[in-house]
Amino acid sequence: MKTDLLTPVLSGGVKNTHYFNGRLLTAEALKADQIANRQQHDHLGQAVGTGIVNGLWVKESGEKDKPFTVNIVPGLALNKKGQALSVAEPGIELQLDRTTPVEASSNGLFASCEKQTRETTEKDNELYIYVLVMSSASGYEGQAPKHNIVGPNAQAGCGRRYAVEMVAFDLVPWDASKVAGLSAKSKKQLADLTKKNDNDPQRLSRLRNLLAHICFGTEAKTAFAINPFQKQDQQSAFSQYGGVDALGLTACEIPLALVYLSKSGIRFVDNWAVRRRVTQPTISNNWPLQSGDRLRAEAEAVFFQFQEQISEFIRKSPGSVLSMRAINFFRYLPPAGLLQLNVGVMPGIRTATFFKEIPIPKKPYFLEGVQLNYLLQTAQQFSSIDLDQDEGSNQDKGETQREAIMLYQVRENETASAPDYLIFTSGHLPFLGNGRFNINRWNFFHFS
After folding, report:
1. Would strands 393-394 and 399-400 be described as parallel, antiparallel, or unpaired?
2. What is the pLDDT of residues 267-316, one digit of tens each?
3. Closest alpha carbon to 203 in 191, 215, 217, 214
4. Contact indicator for 169, 134 with CB cutoff of 8 Å
């Protein structure tokens, strides 16, 4: 479309009703105002970003007679269209055993967000991997009297009083093996972990961890360092990656949680595998990993996901955690994490057992408490630790050498009565165990 300088471009603009004396006020004119107001709010929402603002946690009901029920915590999110999706009332119990598609009613408030019909797929092993999503929806509430234009006292029935903006939930089937950038090794592990139908905590933990990192795009992002110039459809190959992008969700949908089901009930619910804080989109299609804040949001989710998973395991199986070995229960570890230690009656891991067959220092290095947040924030710039990654072979012993992991203990924690914990980091992070003159307590630190 040819346009001159300083000439208003009206095509595609927001149409606000123009009021003037003598104009007939109609429902259509007022509705046009509502539509314009909604479009302006959507534009504002798009500028803020997409993701979860607060709340919207998905939790298993925990009741034996409700094996397919989850509870949704009230909260707020923004979808890619900029629409605010809100769950205001507590106590929403959601049934996840849908076997037939359900059509949602609508009053057209979100005409651009048509409800998708998705079939539930059957599998031979009777196990199902889904992502629970929330989308914008609308409906009517209440009644209001309606009158004819001619004859003000002539009532002509009733109409609906309110057009209500609300939300709807859906389960999206997910075949993780078809995610782009997944290695043959990961596909084989995924097939092995999903072919069984048992309650083995080791299998479920490793599967949960692997699925989460497929969602994060952990493997796909490692290809950037190999060739940052990869192109796909005239833009960077890293514009889309990972399991969340592979779902093909509409711009109206927000992912809330990864759900692993069997025909007998829920096996696990993982929020952080797909949950992201509000994230600004990239402004460069050629360098998407270097603009916007998606990488930072994913790095935060990697840390939160691990901490939630291992804390849940310690809470549910305090005895079993003593024999937990990282290489058996996790494919990946975050670049930095915190571990509760088993001391006295306090449940937690045993360092030697958890890190068995992983190169670690003989004992943890001490770290000043003021450095802890710096370490955790710095770690978000690094890749996750792949416990299956071969760093070389020990020819003399015939052993596979894994990536070294550094261990720290906060000095203030050592001298306090608080529960003991351990910090682990990728060996690629800068070392923070050296003492500094006139700053550190020298008898707690490492000197070379």
Report:
1. antiparallel
2. 999 999 999 999 998 888 889 888 889 999 999 999 999 999 999 999 99
3. 191
4. yes
pLDDT over 90, % of the chain = 44
- Residues 6 or more apart whose Cβ sits within 8 Å of residue 292: 279, 280, 281, 282, 283
Nearest C-alpha neighbor of 243 from the set 212, 269, 267, 276: 212
**Residue 332, H or E segment:** strand 332-333
122 burial type by CB count under 10 A (0-12 exposed, 13-18 middle, 19+ buried): exposed
Q: Are 285 and 239 in contact (CB under 8 A)?
A: yes
**pLDDT tens column, 81-138:** 999 999 988 888 998 875 544 555 555 565 556 556 555 544 444 568 999 999 988 8
DSSP annotation of 114 reads P
Residue 446: per-residue pLDDT: 57
Burial class (CB in 10 A: 0-12, 13-18, 19+), 94: middle
CA distances from 374 to 254, 282, 396, 439 (A): 31, 26, 39, 16
Element spanning 436, H or E = none
Residues linked to residue 130 through DSSP beta bridges, in sequence order? 173, 259
Residue 157: left if φ>0, alpha if ψ -120 to 50, beta else—which one? left
Nearest Cα residue to 304 out of 410, 358, 380, 211: 380
**Where are the chain's structural domains?**
40-89+107-149+157-312, 317-444
Which residues, in sequence order, are CB contacts of 76 under 8 Å at separation 6+?
Answer: 52, 53, 54, 55, 56, 84, 85, 86, 87
199 CB-near residues (< 8 Å, 6+ apart): 267
Per 3-state DSSP, the chain is made up of helix, strand and coil in percentages (nearest 5) of 25, 25, 45
Q: Which residue has the tokens 């998407």?
A: 288
d(Cα 191, Cα 183) in Å, to the nearest integer?
12
d(CA 347, CA 329): 17
222 forms bridges with which residues in the sheet?
Answer: none
Cross-strand bridge partners of residue 423: 338, 408
